[in-house]
Amino acid sequence: MTYKGGAVIIESDFKSEIPESVKEAIFEASKKLPFSVFWHISARNTIGKKQHANMPQNMFLGKNLPLQDLLGHPKCRIFVSRCSMESVLIATYHGVPIICLPATHFDESVASFVEKHGTGVILPRKNITGKLLFNAISGVSNDPSFRGISRHLAETLRDQPETPGDRFIFAIQNLERHRDHKHYSQVKKQNFISTHYWDVCIALTLVVILFLFTLSCGLWFIFHTFSDSITVVNVDRKKII
């Protein structure tokens, strides 16, 4: 079966295991979508054998999928993401609307930026359902304003006097042309200690030694104070006897 309507990219790179509610919502929503669904999961996340057996026909599941290439494809319609800074920047660069499933407080701040600028919507990850995710994907994909704003931001990011590749080539050629310039030869003038950061290592080592010395002195003082008090008590007991 082919799906010519486009593709939905799902990224669920959670720092811990993917919640079961999120898995079920993704599977349920994917079955109803007229798009191809590419689900990118990280090495730390797993999908059970039972869920693999019930995987929709339009879903392609894989670890470490090339998000840059998938989001840059002209058929990409929607990006479902937990809203890490890197993934949002990639999607914005390629002009792809985003559906946010934030996992942390930092993700929520990035997701609020996406929603504020009109390039996506936020869904509650704890209360996510297949119906809610399906309605969000359908609504964003059918609303041209999300795509229009996303493409406008992408054009703004790409509006540069030269490409990143051209800047890289210029930097290499500039280094070759001015190889003997003092600006590029400062490292050669540094001594062995500064070049290999031995001064920093020595300073950190002294700090650690000072900390351990202070800690040992404190423990020694507490031990001897406690032992002296016990000795005084024993002496007083002997006098009473």
Low-confidence stretches: none
Largest sheet: 6 strands, parallel
Mean pLDDT: 82
Tell me the helix content. Answer: 55-70%
* Helix and strand sequence: EHEHEHEHEHEHHHHHH
- CATH C-level category of the largest domain: Alpha Beta
Integer-rounded radius of gyration: 30 Å
Tell me the number of structural domains: 2
Structural class: alpha/beta
What is the helix tally?
11
Shape, please?
flat
Distance between the amino and carboxyl termini? 99 Å
- As a percent range, the share of strand residues is 5-15%
Q: What do we call the CATH topology of the largest domain? A: Rossmann fold
Quickly give the CATH architecture of the largest domain: 3-Layer(aba) Sandwich
Question: How would you explain this protein's 3D organization?
Answer:
The structure is a single chain. The protein is an alpha/beta fold and 241 residues long. It has eleven helices and six strands. Helix 1 (20-32) packs across helix 6 (130-142). The termini are far apart. The model has no long low-confidence stretch (mean pLDDT 82).
Short summary of the structure?
This protein is α/β, with parallel strands linked by helices.
Provide key terms for this protein.
Rossmann fold; alpha/beta; 2 domains; 241 residues
